Target: Lissencephaly-1 homolog
Amino acid sequence: MGEVRKLQKKLRQIENLEIKISLTPEEKIKVQNYHLRSRLAELLLQHSGPQQTQGIVGKEKDKMKRQVEEVTEQLVACRPALKIAREERQENERIDGSQTDGRGETHLPVSPSAEEQEDAEFKSRKQTWEKAKFHLRTLEGHSDIITCAVAVDNLVISGSRDTTVKVWHVPTATEQRNLGGHSGGVTCLSAPPPEYCRRLARVFDLAEKERFVLSGSTDCCVRIWALSSGQCVKSIYTFNAVSSLCFIPEGEGFIVTGSDAGKLQVWSWSSLENCQSENAHLDAVTTLQSQGPLLFSGSAEGCVCVWEVSDERTEPLHRLHVWGPEVTGCGGDDGRLILSPRGDRVFLSCGKASIRILNWRTGVMTRLTNHSSTAGVTDCVNQIPGLLIGSCFDITNGESIINLFSLPQSKYLVSLTSSDLPRILCFAAWLTASGDHRWVTGGRNLIVWEQLPGSFKKRGDVTVRRDSRLEDCLLESDRDSEDEQSEVDDDEDSIPQDASETEEPASFSWLRCVLQ
Model:
């Protein structure tokens, strides 16, 4: 399996290459990976081999086949009687509200336990999603990777490495505004709640219904945009490339920015002045998420910090916990760390085949399988009411998938995919007035997922399927599986020995190795 792991590693590097840096058209041609995928498919087929029944050949095999057919016929013949008896018992229970055991004795109905209720809710939710249909629409306008997206009412706001922020009207799938002003790639977006927008609208003498969106960029600026006019009402210079951004609706409200050097900065929403700077991480802050008075930050080295936010202190942030990569199992060149908190748990995606679940109070880690092999890459994780959503990209065949898990159990529901669906790097979701789901995914393309009503007769654009290998795969673990660890070992063995290469910036030496 050594060659398989090496090919998987090279495919992973090539797929991550275009995401991390911009390539010229000539470089894109050089890193085409079709021949690598063909070779990998051949090796996997050789290792799996045809599934055969050993030790049964010739007449003996035919004899066993006849015996199985005879037994099957006997069982089929018995089924109607059993089915009739079961239906009669169920009918009696329905009429008088009682339950009958196998000996004909009647018992009073017993209220279901909490576990039984959860199981019933899960089965109902699974059946609903197995019948789900979606219509996909591509929003065209960005010229580079879409790095972030947020939803505000019927609008989607997207940020791209092409330096622009675009506002889209989802029902008509049209570009409403192009917000230009950043001189570097847009890395993050955040939409403050309406009550905080009203406060800022009074400051700038705008209508009370005005909505704002915040954008962060590698140009070291955070810009505040008024969506109705597309005007930039305020630009905040942070002195560091902004890699993540979060609005905290606590007290007067705060803007928190994370830099590519690991620094957190806090800005007052009322005065838009800096009120705290904290060297929180050793590497780029890749994700910031709030939950009530708590802030969660994650970085490229695989570290997760938990902060308490209060407007009663001079410095609003107070660190409660810090969990390093030895606990989270994240970090390295696999992918950027993205987190999504829920109660005591934080769901983490970091470019591996599983979603990591961290109990931020105790440091206990579990792994939720998001792909059936280590060839899967989990790029983002998100939550909507009752659902955990994980994107998965198969580097072996280039297939992109969205996996749905039921909350709070974290039990696998279904997988959604479509032909030619690109790798999903960001995700936004909300519910329509009718209660149907509407999602937006970003990466190489910006795509709207619109759930169709149950009465819709035509086939949707999305294939819904179930992967039995993802069922019951919530694993207690404080370290990687053997397969994932073997990939790490392969990475360590493949460090370039040429000292002249190591003197170059990491991105350029990596690019040169892959292109060669």
Q: What stands out?
A: Confidence is low (pLDDT under 50) at residues 49-82, 100-105, 485-516. The CA atoms of residues 133 and 456 lie 8 Å apart.
